[in-house]
Amino acid sequence: DAGITQSPRHKVTETGTPVTLRCHQTENHRYMYWYRQDPGHGLRLIHYSYGVKDTDKGEVSDGYSVSRSKTEDFLLTLESATSSQTSVYFCATRQDRGSVNTEAFFGQGTRLTVV
Amino acid sequence: KQEVTQIPAALSVPEGENLVLNCSFTDSAIYNLQWFRQDPGKGLTSLLLIQSSQREQTSGRLNASLDKSSGRSTLYIAASQPGDSATYLCAVNSGGYNKLIFGAGTRLAVHP
Question: Model confidence at A2, in pLDDT bands (50, 70, 90)?
Answer without folding.
Answer: low
